[in-house]
Structure formats: C-alpha cells, structure tokens
Amino acid sequence: MKKLITIFSILIVLxxxxxxxxxxxxxxxxxxxxxxxxVTEGFDLYLLLPKDYILxxxxxxNLNIKYDGAKTLKDNNIPSIPVNKDDVQNDLYIENGxxxxxxxxxxxxxxxxxxxxxxxxxxxxxxYRIKNVNKDNIAYFDNFKVHNGICKIEYNYEKNxxxxxxxxxxxxxxxxxxxxxxxxxxxxxxxxNKQRREIEQ
Length: 201
Description:
alpha+beta; 5-stranded antiparallel β-sheet; 9 strands; elongated
C-alpha cells in the first residue's frame, strides 16, 4: 500500500508541475486573425486601436511618450505596437468620446489579416473598420475568445457580419481533471485487486 501512496504522490507532483508550467507558458501577445468571406469588391480594412490601448503599450514598454493621436504611432517606435508608419492614418475615428487610431491592414500571403495584441491589456475594445465607396462599417468583437494565442474572426462581406470562427476544443483544465480521474481509477483498481488477493490468502 505504501508503494501505491508513493506512486500517487509522484503523479500528483508531476501533474502539479505540468499545471505550473502551463501557468507560466503565458504568451505576451495574442493574434487577431480575420478571414473574409463572400467578397465581391475591393475594400480597405482598418484596425482601430483605442487611446487606452496605446497608453497601455507605452507604459508596458517603459517609454516617456505623450499621447498625441495618430502622431503617437507615426512619430515614435513603440515595440508593443509594431506598425508600418505609412499605414497609420492621420484622421482619428471617434466614438462616444473615445479616440481610435486607424491602422490600415494588408492581408498576408494566406489572405488573412493579422495583428498582435498585448494579452495583459485585459480588454477587447479595439474594432475593425471596413471601408470603400459603398460601405463604411464598424465591426465590434468585445466578447470573442482567444484559443492557442489566436482570436479567429470571420467577416462576411456580402452579409456584412462578423463572428467568431467555429473552434471546438477541450480546455486544458478539463483534460487535466480527466487525467487525474483516470489515475485515481487505475490506482483504485490496483489497490482493490491487491486487497482481494491478500484476503484470499
């Protein structure tokens, strides 16, 4: 029985170590990844970064920069907001008294629009702006989820809808609980068989 307790203790320590490593494997950023569907004409896609996010990035990078609208990104290098200065628009987008700096996004080689966001910012109050001669729409995604460092978003141009891309996954803690349950069952079976053999002898 002592051997079983020792084995069980070792497994608990190992599982604790796995959980601890998972906690520290926290990424500094996650990626907003937008895929477009049913596109029938050309358009420009802008990411709207709120003033609060820019101030947060400045503080995180320990920079002594005063916020000055779009010039904040055009005139300074902020490591946490790596942008092409030519893509930063001079005019701000303002909604409910909140200023947003507009950044023109270009699709990558896979046709997706990517942008890295600081994970510890804690809010998802940035927005997308879809604009051409026929449209000028703002897309909100404050309730979207991040999985494996990516927030996958689908924009249907024809329907003018934006939604979270379907992702089916089992959370890490659920997997861990299942593993612990299996270990407990196996140890219980071994202990039961051993006790039965001892009684039979």
